[in-house]
Model the fold of this input.
Amino acid sequence: QKEVEQDPGPLSVPEGAIVSLNCTYSNSAFQYFMWYRQYSRKGPELLMYTYSSGNKEDGRFTAQVDKSSKYISLFIRDSQPSDSATYLCAMSALTGGGNKLTFGTGTQLKVEL
Amino acid sequence: GAVVSQHPSRVICKSGTSVKIECRSLDFQATTMFWYRQFPKQSLMLMATSNEGSKATYEQGVEKDKFLINHASLTLSTLTVTSAHPEDSSFYICSAPSDGLAGITDTQYFGPGTRLTVL
Done:
């Protein structure tokens, strides 16, 4: 069993839809959670960073963490074609960027006009 | 946010040659950098942790003699793929942690990646 499970998609939605992306994990030591966006043939770009259960909002993006269920989500409101990318969840047991991240496989999202 | 650059962005080489990839943190210092490899439609796989002033730490299954890492300064790490073969063709990405600098989230920031094609 992988430490982090993420549905690879592809996920196709119409413009303006609410998108829900999810990851589950098995390692209860994970305490810090990130979402990265990766456009084709580019490096990942940090979208959201959170470390506590609950919701964190930033513009059209909301990150949700449920540590009791070992489940994290990223919601995108009013999705745009420019949101089409692969979304990677990542997590770490320790705080600080100098610690290893464990990534999900990434979910490929396509927002259609 | 923090900026990490990589050079070159793309390289094509013949089998048996060596290729060097540079990773630089542009607006912050990084005593640690990470090197990842990503195959098409797969996630990032950590290859090694590069440490300034000391030897790199390699993940299980990664050949340290094939993938040479040198962390020459607080802003530069290099990955050299020695005697490259077609199976080494991949997307290589580095990252550097911000280490909690003011105004920057304390996590890893990624370079744009280097696409290596070995013929």
About this structure: The first strand of chain A starts at residue 4 and ends at 6. DSSP finds no helices and eleven strands in chain A.
